Amino acid sequence: MRFLIVISLILNFAINAQIVNKVLVSGIAGYESHDNDVKNAFLLGYASYNGTEFEGEIFIYSQNLASSFEYAKVHNYQMIVRSTTGLSSGIYYADKNPEIKLVMPAGSNSSVKAYNGDIETCPVIVTGAGNDKNVTGYNIDFYSIDPITENSYSSFSNGYIAWQIAFISNNLDCSIDEARTKARENGTEYGVWNEQNGYGQIDVEATINNVFEPAPVELTSFVATSQQASVVLNWTTATEVNNYGFDIQRSVGQKSFLSIGFVEGHGNSNSPKEYSFIDTDIISGGVKYRLKQMDNNGTFEYSDVVIVESNILSKTVLHQNYPNPFNPSTQINFTLAEAGDVNVSVYNALGEKVAELVNRKMNAGTHNVEFTASNLASGLYFYRLVADSYGESSTYSKTMKMMLIK
């Protein structure tokens, strides 16, 4: 089930198609063997989906990013795959040359925050490496396997991600930016970004198959209204077919969207249906909301974004983790009314502490931490938030359940 925008999307793809048939591997002189492995990661990946080989040109150019962009512009390359670091320079030149898409690693083979900007608006496709989670520099778009070695080198996974984006662009006859957006929506993080894993690994098959699904859900209105201590979301559909429901997502300030709730759909309906959701865990300032409408078969589509100004500072609140049940990772969100000392810990069913996620001073606002339970057994676990606010005499403490299923 999709919102009724597919016809216009198809026409837009046909008019603005940017087929990827010239790819430049930008490297460093003296590292030609390494750069050749990056090239091979691209070519091996491109042929891995259904045996289709890349029929375009892929050329190794061992120069800095400034020279690489100039060469790509003169010779009409659509994509540059950077084999080494230099993200700040990459962003500078990519912003000045929007017709050329740069794909490059975040900049570290260690798990450190290598980029401090906003991924949503970054002109560079920023990548990481890992088998089931990103283990290299984070604050990224996507991560993937390293197809050349077993060491999760980000330069080789970067070449692998570049083929995925190029393959999607070529198969859907859409621009690289549109391919990037579709890959985000269909990634292994289900369209929700997080700092460590970005949008997850790209699912090429899901991305290609979801784009041209029929769109029998018609969303006729979606509004957000600020009330005394909450924001009320109301939306209406005209028709529904196979509608599983709506994932409610929120963004505060410049942060990415995170899930805050779910409302079940009516399945199949030929008459208007009204929905509502109340967000009581709000903070002062501009808050953005969107709906992720999901089918029973797993396809989904996003609504337009609505923005509401809230002058109410929320209470300190611990939210239910998402997803739940989970395997192996889940997100834990909480809102702090005031700055203070914060501890977030996880306990097993025997009351034994198995992980300490946060133990430090934190500012007021909405926060998100990831819990990964790769080394834990399936079962019931508890997570607890303890917050000593500087402006309050009492301590906030709350414990909630979550289920790990492997």
Account of the protein in words:
The chain is α+β, with helices and mostly antiparallel strands. It has 3 domains: 206 residues, Peptidase S8/S53 domain (Rossmann fold), CATH 3.40.50.200; 92 residues, Immunoglobulins (Immunoglobulin-like, Sandwich); 88 residues, Immunoglobulin-like (Sandwich). Helices cover 21% and strands 37% of the residues. The protein has 7 helices and 21 strands. The chain has a 6-stranded parallel beta sheet, sandwiched between helices. Strands 9, 10, 12, 13 and 14 form a 5-stranded antiparallel beta sheet that branches. Strand 17 and strand 18 form a beta hairpin. Helix 5 packs across helix 6 and helix 5 packs parallel to helix 7. The longest helix is centred in the middle third of the chain and has 19 residues. The chain is globular, with a radius of gyration of 22 Å. It starts with 5 loop residues before the first helix and ends with a strand. 38% of the residues are buried. The N terminus is likely disordered.
Give a summary of the structure in a few sentences.
21% of the residues lie in helices and 37% in strands. With 406 residues, the chain is α+β, with helices and mostly antiparallel strands. The strands form 5 sheets. It has a 6-stranded parallel β-sheet, with helices on both faces.
